[in-house]
Write a structure and sequence with these properties.
Elements lengths: L6 H8 L4 E4 L25 E5 L4 H11 L6 E4 L5 H4 L3 H6 L2 E6 L2 E6 H9 L6 H9 L3 H14 L16
Amino acid sequence: MQPPVTARQADAISGSSGSVVAGTISGPAEVAPAALPSRPIRDEPSATILLYDADCGFCTASATWLGRRRLGAGIEPLQRADLVGLGVDPARAEREIPFVERTAAGTRVSYGHRAIGRALATGPMPWRLAGWLLSHPPVSWLAGPVYALVARNRHRLPGSTAACRIEA
């Protein structure tokens, strides 16, 4: 298993834009469902976790796919997480996938394509490179609008249900 990305590495991978620095994580959280590799948030300063909407079939399928990439980050349903305790904006998390990075300096939360890029960057090559590319121009210039388009239409994608619809 690859070690989690340090704060310095995370900043080098995607820069500081598109992230929010919050307080600290109040305690460990469990990773589920059973179909995903279990990697709970640890009490280590550099613990990372990707949160997804388990009520959405498309999101669950995407999280399962990401879990198979052997990422160094945990993957957990939004519905089981203490969003406020993790520093995640619950309203924004309904529209964009959040990625939480716990560092010695505090907690950084990234959303949308930057969250996916940061999560991929915790994995082995070629996923680490894909994560870096998603977070940097010129790929990031396209990744943001493409992510927004997919998120708005996730209820129309394979595996989706009515629960996948995002109200504008």
